[in-house]
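lol forgot to send this yesterday, sorry. struct tokens for the thing we talked abt
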């Protein structure tokens, strides 16, 4: 390898990079975002069914009622994945399809759907990577208190047992939770996600109960899975840059506070068996953390085979000087009234970041992914990693010949795959990469306005068209060599 190749392009636009033989190339979706069939075959209501019907919560009043109709187009979508050459598919299971009320009776039609999905993947040589919870909490569990209530972890453990017994002979990797940061802080703090509550203390209780639910679910899945699956959780890490405020103060203090809430509130208990002291101190005025019971931390701290990493962009923070209007551009998902940062919302501000940006307004920063992977290796040297989401929304247009040229998305993916490859070269134990998303889909508070797919979905006809980025990615997945 020449020096030039080793250093690569400063803009991360490499080609010809060769990925390891056993590197997994996959793509990801989530149940509520793609399935549709929201009221069919015994599925119960989830918090997103309820939330998306509250006027003003989701762009254009969109809901997941039909979404990509993946539930009815399963075989077509499986064929599409095979045609692309995907090595793995990361999907999530809608809890209310399995247990319509979140507790009690099992809905066999729900199990049958996911069983068919898993078999269909295996028949096509695609590894099933199943997430138990990508935010569709059964509504009756929310009515009983939701994630701030400890009983939700009992229900989740039972649900994990059911799924372990049903699919644990065939699933390749179990992921307990997707992005508990979003479930806790956006769902119960900021309020821009279902169930839309703005209660800082409840958000922190939700953080703990989600962590506990993960630990209990790993135990339940291990006890019931008869195959040899791997176990994981997916976190959305915040890659932070700090700026001094108008008084020249506090860049590192601002980073420390947000890092504690966003990252270490999860990696602490999950991977080290303790909540960080500074997190407990920063949030002392919000809660006394008495919801952490004896033995919880041991339960949470289960060994996992792979840590799922979702990465889209960086965030820039500084200590608020108390004088200038406070900026709250935290660059993540829909804005709402409450705070995603209990204990630090009056202290830290999020600063607008220089472009270029994606259609979400998120800055494009492939170096942030490389930095994140290296930093995780440094913090947790023995923990294998997997990029479980990376991708970009852009406003695609269909060309006259029916193709979907999406050069910006292709460029985004090239640059982030280059970043991942550099981390691999530096010795990071990175096992694979899942592009978000296989299909254009329901982007939460943004409804169908934001397209993340490498496959276009026409939301009138539900027709699928592989975009240029999808073709490019398919070639990468099939050859392991980054195409020009
Ligand atoms: C998340 C989820 C996905 C999103 C994606 C783009 O990170 O919020 O895992 O469901 O659609 O991240 O915002």
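and heres what i got for the seq, position by position
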């Amino acid at each position: 390898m020449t020096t030039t190749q080793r250093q690569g392009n400063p803009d991360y636009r490499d080609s010809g990079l060769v990925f390891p033989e056993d590197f997994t190339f996959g793509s990801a979706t989530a149940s509520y975002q793609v399935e549709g069939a929201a009221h069919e075959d015994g599925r119960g209501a989830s918090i997103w069914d309820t939330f998306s019907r509250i006027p003003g919560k989701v762009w254009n009043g969109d809901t997941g009622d039909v979404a990509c109709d993946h539930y009815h187009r399963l075989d077509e979508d499986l064929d599409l994945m095979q045609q692309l050459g995907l090595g793995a598919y990361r999907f999530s299971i809608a809890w209310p399809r399995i247990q319509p009320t979140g507790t009690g009776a099992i809905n066999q039609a729900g199990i049958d759907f996911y069983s068919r999905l898993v078999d269909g993947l295996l028949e096509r040589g695609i590894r099933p990577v199943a997430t138990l919870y990508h935010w569709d909490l059964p509504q009756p569990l929310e009515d009983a208190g939701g994630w701030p209530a400890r009983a939700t972890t009992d229900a989740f453990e039972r649900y994990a047992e059911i799924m372990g017994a049903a699919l644990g002979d065939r699933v390749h990797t179990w992921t307990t939770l997707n992005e508990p940061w979003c479930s806790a802080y956006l769902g119960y703090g900021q309020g821009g996600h279902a169930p839309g509550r703005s209660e800082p203390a409840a958000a922190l209780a939700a953080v703990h109960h989600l962590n506990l639910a993960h630990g209990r679910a790993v135990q339940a899945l291990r006890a019931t899975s008869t195959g040899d699956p791997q176990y994981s959780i997916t976190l959305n890490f915040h890659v932070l840059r700090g700026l001094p405020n108008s008084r020249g103060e506090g860049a590192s203090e601002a980073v420390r506070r947000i890092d504690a809430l966003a990252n270490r509130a999860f990696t602490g208990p999950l991977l080290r068996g303790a909540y960080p002291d500074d997190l407990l101190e920063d949030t002392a005025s919000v809660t006394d953390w008495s919801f952490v019971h004896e033995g919880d931390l041991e339960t949470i701290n289960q060994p996992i085979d792979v840590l799922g990493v979702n990465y889209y962009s960086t965030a820039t923070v500084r200590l608020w000087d108390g004088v200038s209007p406070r900026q709250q551009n935290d660059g993540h998902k829909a804005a709402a009234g409450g705070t995603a940062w209990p204990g630090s919302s009056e202290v830290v501000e999020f600063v607008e970041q220089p472009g270029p940006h994606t259609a979400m307004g998120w800055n494009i920063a492939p170096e942030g992914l490389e930095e994140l992977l290296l930093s995780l290796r440094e913090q947790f040297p023995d923990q294998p990693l997997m990029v479980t989401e990376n991708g970009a929304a852009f406003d695609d247009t269909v060309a006259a010949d029916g193709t979907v040229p999406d050069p910006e998305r292709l460029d985004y993916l090239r640059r982030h795959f280059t970043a991942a490859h550099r981390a691999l070269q530096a010795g990071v134990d990175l096992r694979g990469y899942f592009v978000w998303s296989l299909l254009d889909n329901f982007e939460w508070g943004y409804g169908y306005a934001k397209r993340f797919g490498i496959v276009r979905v026409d939301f009138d006809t539900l027709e699928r068209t592989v975009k240029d980025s999808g073709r490019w990615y398919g070639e990468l997945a099939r050859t392991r060599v980054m195409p020009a």
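The chain has one domain: 24-238+302-312+355-479. anyway ping me if u want another try
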